[in-house]
Amino acid sequence: MAKPPAPKTRIELLQGTLDLLILQTLQWGPQHGYGMTQAIRIHSSETLHADSGSLYHALHRLVRQGWIRSEWKVSDNKQRAKFYSLTAAGKKQLLAERSRWERLADAMATILSRTKEGEL
C-alpha cells in the first residue's frame, strides 16, 4: 500500500519574489549568502526557505544588474565570505519591487475575499 504524500509545509517562492527578499534582507545591512538564507527563514517564521542554488543564481544576477555589490570579508566565525550590500540603484529597485508586491497582494486579497462570482 502506497503512503499518501506528505503535506506541503514549505511555500514555493513565486518567480521574482526571491529578488525582493534579497533586496529587503540587504536593506537591513550587508550580509553573506548563508546569512541571507537564515534571515529569510527566521523572519518568515520558518515558512520561506531559499535554497542555496537559487539564492546564489539570484545574487549573481542582481550584481550584474547593479542592484547589489559584493566584496570578500571575514565573517563572524573567522571564515572568508562574500558579503553583499545594496547599491543606490538597488534601493530604488527595492521600492519598485515592494510597490509591485503590494499591488499583487491587494489583488489576491480582493479575489480571495469574493464568496462567488460578482459578490464580495
Description:
The chain has one domain (17-113): Arc Repressor Mutant, subunit A, CATH 1.10.10. Helices cover 51% and strands 13% of the residues. It contains 4 helices and 3 strands. Helix 1 packs across helix 4.
Helix-residue proportion: 40-55%
Q: Going across the major beta sheet, what is the strand order?
A: 1-3-2
* Unreliable stretches covering 5 or more consecutive residues: none
CATH architecture: Orthogonal Bundle
What is the name of the CATH class? Mainly Alpha
N-to-C series of helices and strands: HEHHEEH
Question: What labels describe this entry?
Answer:
Arc Repressor Mutant, subunit A; 4 helices; 13% strand; 120 residues; 51% helix; three-stranded antiparallel β-sheet; elongated; alpha+beta; single chain
How would you sum up this structure in a few lines?
The protein is of the alpha+beta class and 120 residues long. Helices cover 51% and strands 13% of the residues.
Write the layout of secondary structure elements.
Elements: H1 17-27, E1 31-32, H2 33-43, H3 52-64, E2 68-74, E3 80-86, H4 88-113
Antiparallel strand pairs: 1-3, 2-3
Helix pairs in contact: 1-4
